[in-house]
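Thread title: Can someone regenerate the structure for this chain?

I was given the following input by a collaborator and told the matching structure tokens would be attached. They weren't. Posting the sequence so someone can regenerate them.
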Amino acid sequence: MQKRTLGRTDLHVTPLGFGGAEIGFQTHDGQVAISKLLNQALDAGLNVIDTASAYKESEAIIGNAINARRKELYLFTKCGATEGFTRKDWTRKGITLQLDQSLRLLKTDYVDLLQLHSCDSETLRQGEAIRALEDARKAGKTRYIGYSGDGDFALTALELDVFDTLQTSINIADQQAITLTLPLAAKKQIGVIAKRPIANVAWRTGKLPEDSYHQPYFERLQVLSYPFLAEPLEQAALHALRFTLAQQVVSVAIVGTTKPGRFEQNLRALRTLDAEPAALQEIRERWLAVADASWVGQV
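Best answer:
Regenerated them for you:
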């Protein structure tokens, strides 16, 4: 599988990475099933796992599942927000304590990337949270530091010239970043990680999702009305994923699942499904034609 360099780092990442939010927040068949899922993904060639202190039990589940294979993958986590997003602590002490707990749960001495989890511009400019990440890098607890977030907050993060990476929402229903932050990230050689790359498959049932997290994308897709969304679900999702990965500055797309075997299917399909430039351009042109000014990046 062809790998991409993550910005100016020396991390050579696979185009797909595993996102740990779903296993932290959604019901699944337990630790054995998740261990099988993650090990199958690693066997298939995937080499990025992304999680966060805020994703409830995610770090602990991942740590138990991949401890023996730590050297085969890049491990990313996030700090600042914690306890299922019910608490935030951007202090130097708070972030240090969060990271130490994350390392214990992940059963590792270091992570490859430590990211601030969607703090605002004021917090970024105050600098204490950033100094905590820099302390962690100096102590060898993380190799690189990054920012995870969207919109103007993400733009502030890029302008500060302290982060190695940006993780931000990019997909068929969320394209603000393509003009707002990706050009600056490319100019500064900041690695870009795409979150929510298939728009949470919000069109899946044809009805407004119960989860409010998915609802803005469903509503936007009703207006965007891309023809390919009428195709079988897996095929449509792959078209959506192709669009995200076609953005030149994107190195890796983070996809979450609780279903063993899904990553092998996705990786095989990505190898065989050619993305027609015209089809990708049609997605972009449709967005530019109908997107409302309120359609900002979804955190």
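The two ends are 30 Å apart (CA to CA).
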